[in-house]
Structures are given as C-alpha cells and as structure tokens.
Amino acid sequence: MSFTIADLKKGERGIITDISSNDIPLKLLEMGCLPGNTVELIQVAPFSDPMYLDINGSHLAIRKETAALIVIEKELNE
Amino acid sequence: MSKQINVALIGNPNTGKTSVFNALTGLNQKVGNYPGITVEKKEGLCKLPRGVKAHIIDLPGTYSLNASSVDENVVIELLLNKNDKDFPDVAVLISDVENLKRNLLLFTQIKDLKIPTILVINMADRMNRKGISLNIPLLEQRLNTSIALVSTRKNEGIQHLKDLIMDYKELSLKPCLDTSTIDAEYFKNLKNAFPNQDLFKLWLVITQDVNFGNVERQEIDLSQFKTKSHSELKRLQQKETIKRYQFINDVLKEGQTIDASKATGFRAKFDRILTHKVWGYVIFFIILLTIFQAIYDWASVPMDFIDSSFASLSDWIKNTFPPGIFTNLLAEGIVAGIGGIVIFIPQIAFLFLFISVLEESGYMSRVVFLMDRIMRRFGLSGKSVVPLISGTACAIPAIMATRNIENWKERLITILVTPFITCSARLPVYLIIIALVIPKGRFFGLSYQALTLMLLYLIGFGMAVFSAYILNRILKTKSKSFFVIEMPSYKIPLLKNVVITVVEKTRTFIFEAGRIILAISVILWVLASYGPGESFTNAETIVRGENPTLNTIELEDKIAAYKLEHSFIGVIGKTIEPAIKPLGYDWKIGIALVTSFAAREIFIGTLATIYSVGSADAKSGENTIKNKMAAEVYPDGSKVFTFASGISLLLFYAFAMQCMSTLAIVKRETNTWKWPLVQLFGMSSIAYIVALISFQLLK
Q1: Same structural domain, B155 and B203
Q2: Contact: A25, B482; criterion CB under 8 Å
Q3: Do B484 and A66 touch (CB under 8 A)?
Q4: What is the pTM assigned to this prediction?
Q5: Radius of gyration of chain B (CA)
Q6: Nearest-CA residue of chain B relative to A48?
Q7: pLDDT digits (tens, 9 = 90+) for B335-348
C-alpha cells in the first residue's frame, strides 16, 4: 500500500515519489509539488481538511482529496 | 527624443509586485479595465533619468504562463501579441527572496519568449532574518539577466531598478532552456509546419488551448497541424515544469545559500495560534466584531457631519440665490444628490482599510484555510470567505474577487449569494431607519441600535449561507473540485499600499457609482417638479380655493405637498401604492423603493429630494433627512415611520436585489443574463414576502 500526503500527521515529513494522477492540477506542480521534493504537514484545519503544507519551501494549503493523489515515501523518524 | 519605454511588471501573487509598482509610480497611476473583461488594469508613469519616461503596467499575479483564469490570461495574451500597444520593451519580473525558486519558474518562461527581462529580488530586507545569502554576479551570469535587489519597505534598490530599465537595450535575449528537448520529434514537426514562428511561442499557444481556450490565435493558424491529445499535452507540460525546476535548482545550488539555523520562525509561531482549531476561529470572530463596531461607531461621526453640512449648504443656496428653477435644481437636485454620494466615503474608506490590512498582512489566507471545510458544506469554498467579507463593502468588487475560486460550481454559488451580504450601500438606509424606529437604551452595555445593526448583518450572512445550501442541492454542474492556496509569510502592511488602496477604491466608488446616483437625483427632481395635467399647473389656485383661511406659511406647505402628489413621480408612487401598502409603506417610500432598484443608496437621496421638494419652508438645522423622516405623517396624523413599517423596510432592504451595477457585473462574470435575472426575481420576491409577513405581524 502506498502512502500519500493525506496519510501524514501534523509535523511529519515525506518525499514525493509519484504525481502521475491526471487529476493533479498543473498549478500544484508549478508551485513546487514535484517528485523528489520534501513535503511537511504544518497544520490541519478541523477534520484534517484542508492541509497546510510546506513543499520544498513553498507554503500552501490543499484539500485532503487532492492530497490523497500525491504519493509519497514517508520519512523515518529523525 | 524621449520615447516612452513600455514596462510590464510580472510576478507571482504575494511577491510585493504592487509595492514595487507603487514605489515606481507613486500616486501617478490609473486603474481601469481591460476592454470587454473585468480584469483590473493598473498602469502608471515613472520618470527615469535624462528626461525619459516609462509607462508601467502592473499585470495580474500569475504562477506561470499556463493560464488557468481570466486574470492570468491577460498576462499571456499581452506577452504573445507583439502588436499590442502595451507590448513591453522590457519585462520586470518581481520575485520574493524567500520563494526565489518558485518565482524563477515564471522568469524562465518569460526569458524563453526572448523578451528583455530584469529580475527584481524583492523583500531583500528579510534576507538576514531568513539566513539567505545570494551570489548576485553568478545569478546574473547563469540567468542571463540583470538583477535589482529591492526592498520597498526600506525604499532601497528602486533607483538601481530605474537605471536598469533605462538601459534595457543592453539586456541579453538568450533563453534559459530549450523546451523542444521534452519531445524532440513533436517539436521538429512543429518547426516544419511553421518555419517562421518561434517554437516556444507556438508551444504556449498550443497549450493554452488545453488550459483555457481563449487566447487569440493571432497569426498562427493551427487548424492544419495535427496536435496531440489533451492528456498527452498535459504530460508534456509536466515534463516541461520538471525540466525548468531542474535548471533552477542547478542555478540556485551555486547562487544561493540558506542557513536554516539563522531563520527565525515568526511564521510558525503565528500560525500555531492563528490557524488553531479553537483560537483561530475565536480570533477571526473578534476581528470581525471589531470591524463592525468600528464602522458603526467611527464612521457615524463624519457621516452625521456630512449629512448636516449638505443640508445647510442646500439651505444656504436657497436663501442666497434668487429664487427660480436653477436655484431649486441646484439646491434640491444636485446638492442633495452629491450629498447622497459623499456620505458613503467614511464607511467605504474604513472597510477597505480593514480589508487591505488583512490581505497585506497575509492573514486573509489563514481565514481561507480555516473556513474551507465549513464553507464547503454549503457548496462554497474557503476562498468564498474573501468575497463574502468584501461584500460588506460592495458586491461588485466582491463578485470580481470570486475569480480565484477554481471550481465553477463553488464560484457560481458564491456569485449568486454575495448580494445578500450587507453592503455599504444598505448601511445608510439601515442607520437612518434604526435611528428612527429602534429605541435608544442599552442591553448589557450594548445599545439596542448597535445590536439591531449586528443582527441585520447576521441575517444577511445567514441568508447567503442558507441559499448557498439550497443552490448546492439544486444546481447540477459537475466540475472537478480543486483548491490550492498559497500561505504567504506574515508581513506588517505597508502604509503606502494601504493608503493607495483606500484612496483608489473610494475614488472609483465616487466616480463610478456617483455618476449614476447624481444622474438619478437630477431626474427625480425633474419628475418631482413637473407634472401632467391641470391639477399640477393650477395647484396654487386649487389649494387656495379649498383653504381660504390658512396663513401664508401653512398655505405654501399645502401647495408644495399638493404639487408633489400630482407631479410625475407622485403619479408613479400612487400607482404602485396598492402593492406596497400591505408592507406598511406610503407612496413616497414607494418612489424611493422604485428608484433604489438602480442602487440602494438612492433611497435616502430620493427621500431627501422628495421631502425637500415637499416642504416649502426650510428652517436650517431642522432640515436633516432624519428629522424630516421623523416628522412624516399620514393625513390622519399617524406616523409613517413606525416600528412595524421600519422593521419591514429593514428586512426588504436586507433581501432585495436592488443594484443595477451588481446585475451588470454578474452578467459579465457568468456570461449570461440567466443568473442576474434569477437574482433579481428570486431575491426581490423573498424580500417582498418577508417584509409583508413582518409588517402584518408587528402592526
């Protein structure tokens, strides 16, 4: 089973591995959501939606349904 | 000798582009619209050394040249059209030192269009605090450009930028990367089909079709060329984006060092509180309360002053100039009309002051984040919060602010319900009627009058949310939902930017809305001063005949009232009286109701015009609109403005769609008359029914 950004908990980090879903908007990629980049979950609104992320230095918020499309490799505890 | 240099400011949202624009042009700027669309077009003049002038356009913020909204489309259309009179001689790309990597994506695209480009690295004052250091000469060399390190906050680097603009001819035109490497064969075919065209430009034109489909084809006819499917093109665009980031990463690896240990975590500290699951909402609510309190309390002082000043000015004109038609037109039509416009200035200025501070500080994005989930339950988006809050100022900019809602259904619902929000045009109507019919006195230290106003705001907001919920059930538009919002870092708002926003928005209101209000006031005066048939022209003889015993003053009052009743406007009012009588209104209010369908704020102006036409004697001081309304009685001596008719009026104004300009904007934004008509009839029926029920229950 693959991890997505939606599975992250507050403060956890991961590395984006796959963005091949056709439903991921191009705008998100342009804002830095690309394979190899680290993503950290900074804050969640109630019901974990939307999610406030730091993707490679870009701070942005996306909805959980979009977050669930972005496959990541979870970073082990430092 | 002095030819103007055309300069286009381009950049991501939140990079301080507008601050740079303000620093270059000062107040020497003008805001208009692009022809045919409601995208704001900001341009200004900047004086350069040696008497040269630069014409500067502040283009809408965009993350890339792949347009996904009308605003972004403006950027690409300009940059692809060499024949446009605004086509830039030089592009100035504004980037933010903290987000250099992401900002450079757009930079590489513009460079690839072979437009001379200057790179501005803005907010340079934050470098130390964030532990960032840059190797400027290396960056200039690798990116083939000239760089200006700018801090608008400290007013540094602007002169250097001006020098660079002056010498734009020395800029390199070398592109950053070769897009054709993402699919060599495809681009080879493209080259063969259009040997005279620039490949990257062709590629942009082709891909715009995928994203938006609105860029004019210009001289390129693509119909003969066999292109690729949408998903194939999208995949290529992804590949292009990745390639651009590779290039940028390589450049920044050498040119930028970030010492994370030096970075201070203001953002994290603020975010922990401001986006907190409980405190975040509490703080937001307190901010809203403060705004309402301020508008009610602070704005009422200058408003009362304006109201009484115009009343005395009108009296002064009447007493000073020789009596006659022009004096009357001036005193009763024009001065009353202008007063009806000027009285809005304090509130509009206060509202835009708050909104621009919230936007500038970066707080607004946190509100969007907090509210998204809640708003979605009603078919709205977190981004609907900004239009709904702006709607408290005016529905027109609010509806224009819905453009950054990506999902069409969410956007449409936001557009449809925004006019329910209590806009500043309703405020004078509310204030004056509340003052007339709600008793003074306090409840736990809060005045009844302030509470009533708060309640009216809540009713408007509640109705907006409720109708959004219903519309969400009814509307069957399927559209992919997606939502991305940047969370900018917190900044102390720049005073200059806030002031310019407030001045600009107020000025626009006065000249745009003011024109209509003034015109209608004058038309009203004419309609009230002339009438059809015998009973109007012979008013004096008729009244004199009926009341032979009255003294002069009483007689003059009677004549004036009789004239008004038989003027054109009196006839209109009398005609609709049966329809509005069950709501508790007389024919004079009826006239104000009818004219307010042009714009709500006309209500007060109309009553002012009607009442000043209707009373021959004007004692100064006694002459404010409020006093005149309080003194209005039916022929049997009972008051016109009672608690029941007042509440009924308040509710009517809370729900009715009375604003031509809003309807026009909705037509433009939805591209059909269907939705504005739905608003006009839907909202006005709700208003009628609610006002009817409330008056019948309360009377």
Answers
A1: yes
A2: yes
A3: yes
A4: 0.79
A5: 30
A6: B373
A7: 877 877 787 788 77
